[in-house]
Amino acid sequence: xxxxxxxxxxxxxxxxxxxxxxxxxxxxxxxxxxxxxxxxxxxxxxxxxxxxxxxxxxxxxxxxxxxxxxxxxxxxxxxxxxxxxxxxxxxxxxxxxxxxxxxxxxxxxxxxxxxxxxxxxxxxxxxxxxxxxxxxxxxxxxxxxxxxxxxxxxxxxxxxxxxxxxxxxxxxxxxxxxxxxxxxxxxxxxxxxxxxxxxxxxxxxxxxxxxxxxxxxxxxxxxxxxxxxxxxxxxxxxxxxxxxxx
Length: 246
Description:
5-stranded antiparallel beta sheet; globular; Phosphorylase Kinase, domain 1; D-amino Acid Aminotransferase, Chain A, domain 1; alpha+beta
């Protein structure tokens, strides 16, 4: 017997990629993914047809993969195409960047080519702040300014490494290279640190293992064209044909 669909309440927050609504349960939220696309801290804006449904389905699939690997997440269940029920968390304002290969700002920062394998992998912190351009920071800065505790940073590092260990082989089996990705974590009512937000072509760099073709938001950032097709291809490999998503 399927669980009843909760009643969607007031809109609590609208971000660049999602709308978040209350439910009757104060510890559960209704999340609706949007087709809106942004880049460069929202300086570039556009729409990717079908992105909301694709990202919700891909994120659900990948969150289940990391849950099976022992990483607790905020995901509860799907509420239909493009919509999810999640646990309410207070987001830790530290974005976690995991890099398996050089790309994007990392490659430009150090003057290296994109695609260089990184050994060891690089895990970085950025302050979650669009207004400040998500500036990078080290452990001392995060703790001294009260963005996270030392124990939380240790949990963030271990959690991000565990997510990477789970996703790299899963995606490789489906012909995708996980170049780098961004994670967000939050603390729930019980004080648990949970992986939150989403894991999707919006938050990951995914390259085709055979051709090196980019199948992620870089196609939008860099005006490469074929954005919708790239997202649908990721969906096809991880979930199934888009028409089966609902």
